[in-house]
Amino acid sequence: MPTPTPNQVPQGFNRYPTREQIELAMPLYEPSQDLQQALDVWRREGRGTPLTHERLQDLVRRLWIFTTAREKPAPQVVVSSVTGNNEYCYMPATNTINLGMKPSIISTLHEMAHAVYGIEELPACAFSIALFKAVYPRSFAKLEWKGHMLVKPGMSSTPITSMEAYPT
Ligand SMILES: [Zn+2]
To answer: 36 alpha carbon to ligand 1 midpoint, in Å?
Structure first.
């Protein structure tokens, strides 16, 4: 199946799945034990240290080899304001993940999922949330759903999953 080009993707919030759709899809994107373990090791190694962009770059490098797309080159992970507002995004043309200004594990997993599954939002949301939930059950339990996003209570303007853009 050909990968849709960015201008075939409907723009705006409505292209994101609902919480119900994501929860229904999560079992289909259940992360493998290897993936969960790799994230868990990374989590334990970083305990007590701040979450940085460098750690997130390392995270993608470590997880990629356990994804179903491991035969393909791992995406590059960069920090730059390609979208003009420093949002998380995945750019299929260059196989590059752009990290937003605020380091976020779920957002990084979400963009890595785009590199694995393609441009559709449902797999990206379902995979990233299922993997986060498996390794960070207590943090997950404290998050609140806001549309397709999970946010920290009282921080509704700071989504943990991203509202990313696909620059044309
Ligand atoms: Zn996405």
So the answer is: 21
Closest of 112, 82, 84, 83 to residue 97, by C-alpha:
112
- The answer to whether residue 5 is domain-embedded is no
* Assigned domain for 11 exists: no
Cα 49 to averaged position of ligand 1 atoms, centre (Å): 27
Beta bridge partners of 122: none
- Cα 145 to ligand 1 centre (Å): 16
Model pTM score: 0.83
Is residue 33 assigned to a domain? yes
Residue 97 Cα to ligand 1 midpoint, Å, equals 11
CB-proximal residues (5 Å) to ion ligand 1? 121, 124
Q: How far is CA 125 from the centre of its chain?
A: 7
In a domain, 7, yes or no: no
**CA atoms lying within 13 Å on the CB side of residue 63:** 33
| The total number of structural domains that make up the chain | 1
pLDDT tens track for 36-80: 999 999 999 999 999 999 999 999 999 999 999 999 999 999 987
Distance 91 CA to ligand 1 centre (A): 11
pLDDT of 102-127, one tens digit each?
A: 899 999 999 999 999 999 999 999 99
Q: How many CB atoms lie within 10 A of CB 147?
A: 16
Q: What's the CA-to-centroid distance between 142 and ligand 1, angstroms?
A: 22
Q: Domain containing 55: what range?
A: 16-151
